[in-house]
Write a structure and sequence with these properties.
The chain has 422 residues and is mostly beta strands. It contains 2 helices and 24 strands. The chain has a single domain, classed as Porin (Beta Barrel). It is elongated.
């Protein structure tokens, strides 16, 4: 599973591609019960599936970039092609009881600015990963209401590279630092699925916050420094924490007729849990700096780092449609608007967020009465955003200079999957 971790930039550091069918409909899914993928979107819907067994799997390729227009002119990321994936399987033990297991990637972020770009002292490359394993149970309480819940086993990983200025130590060259760590944490996913009429579905789901807590034994810091100052930057251990925020999802789906299915979701994400990005180095260092021919002063060199984020809670509005063209072919299209949680005052190129619009299309083709191939493509574009990171003063105390400029995000995400029901 670690080999196939997601490498994708999304709003905040969420990855909104946990199903090819749902992505084709603008990421709606809370009120849909198409197949085993409901395990992630709304665990309550599993018990309403008609099939005894359902298997859904797939993945995406992500082609995304961010452009930055600042004092050095136009610069852009060279992000690797990401591969977020999902795998869901469900089993109906009785007419009302269902079990399932899913593996999916709702969080992840890879941004590669290169070694020598103008913001290299803030970030050169960052890679965040979150893989969720979810055993699930669902039960149909009445003919029109079912509930479900899943236990989350979350593998979280963080890897950060950036340059280190050494001019204050009278060293003309830059150093470099890599901070990397991983850990396993736990959470839960709950859902309620309502079918008040034959044509109307209503869904409510909640996924809990999971804090990826990296203790000293979980994360390493590795410095690359000139020999003259290498003792001041010892390799060792570091502690850090990153929240994977909670989300509340509300959805409605309406089967207009035999051909048309319409659905809409509103997603509330509790990003205000991301207050700051802190690194607590196990070893801190200092050095003596002369201030006169006879006096020196002790100056800290390697100290703990705290960078304010103060993100806001955000909402995403999604709408999608499915048209059943024939017994073998279903066509889909959707659109969504994704609010950014990022703060103008503490805006950083490691997560260069912006309000985004996504437009998607897709289809499913039945290869047999049990097996379908599913495909989609999503185009995402963010509004141009001007941001300044006041955490990082690149000037002097008397003449502060904060790193900032204009950011623009866009990209394509094609996806393909299969669904097998029997």
């Amino acid at each position: 599973m670690i080999i196939f971790t997601s490498k994708v930039f999304a709003e905040g550091y969420a990855v909104n591609v946990q199903g090819v069918k749902q992505t084709g409909m603008g990421h709606v899914g809370t009120a849909l019960n198409m197949d085993a993928s409901s395990l992630q979107w709304n665990p309550g819907a599993l018990a309403t599936l008609d099939q005894k067994f359902s298997l859904s799997m797939g993945g995406f390729a992500t082609f995304l970039k961010t452009e930055f227009n600042g004092p050095a002119g136009m610069e852009e990321t060279d992000n690797p092609t990401g591969t977020p994936f999902y795998l869901y399987g469900t089993f109906k033990a009785s007419d009302r009881l269902a079990f399932g297991l899913g593996v999916y990637t709702p969080f992840g972020n890879t941004v590669d600015w290169g070694k020598e770009w103008s913001g290299k002292y803030l970030v050169q490359n960052i890679d965040l990963k979150g893989i969720y394993i979810q055993p699930t149970v669902s039960y149909q309480l009445t003919d029109w209401m079912s509930v479900g819940g899943g236990f989350l086993i979350v593998y979280g990983e963080e890897d950060l590279d950036r340059a280190v200025p050494l001019s204050a130590l009278n060293i003309p060259a830059d150093g470099a630092v890599n901070i990397a760590g991983s850990n396993i944490q736990y959470g839960y996913n709950l859902g309620v699925f309502l079918q008040p009429t034959e044509k109307l579905n209503i869904g409510i789901s909640y996924r809990s916050q999971v804090d990826v807590e990296l203790e000293y034994e979980d994360a390493d810091v590795d410095f690359t420094m000139p020999d003259a100052v290498a003792p001041l930057f010892p390799d060792g251990r570091v502690a850090a924490s990153l929240p994977l925020p909670a989300s509340l999802n509300l959805g409605v789906a309406y089967q207009v007729n035999d051909k048309w299915l319409l659905s809409a979701d509103v997603n509330f994400v509790k990003w205000d849990a991301y207050k700051s990005l802190n690194f607590d180095f196990e070893t801190n260092t200092s050095t003596q700096v002369p201030i006169s021919p006879t006096q020196t002063v002790e100056v800290p060199v390697l100290t703990d780092s705290k960078s304010t984020r103060n993100w806001d809670n955000s909402k995403t509005y999604r709408f999608g449609a499915q048209y059943t063209a024939s017994e073998k072919l279903a066509l889909r299209a959707g659109i969504y608007y994704d609010e950014t949680p990022t703060n103008d005052k503490f805006y950083t190129p490691e997560t260069p967020g912006a309000d985004k619009i996504g437009i998607s299309a897709g289809f499913s083709y039945m290869l047999s009465d049990k097996l379908s191939v599913d495909a989609t493509i999503l185009y995402v574009e963010g509004k141009e955003r001007t941001g300044f990171d006041t955490n990082n003063n690149l000037g002097t105390e008397d003449n502060p200079v904060y790193f900032g400029g204009k950011y623009k995000n866009k990209g394509f995400l094609p996806g393909i999957g299969i669904t097998y029901n029997f």
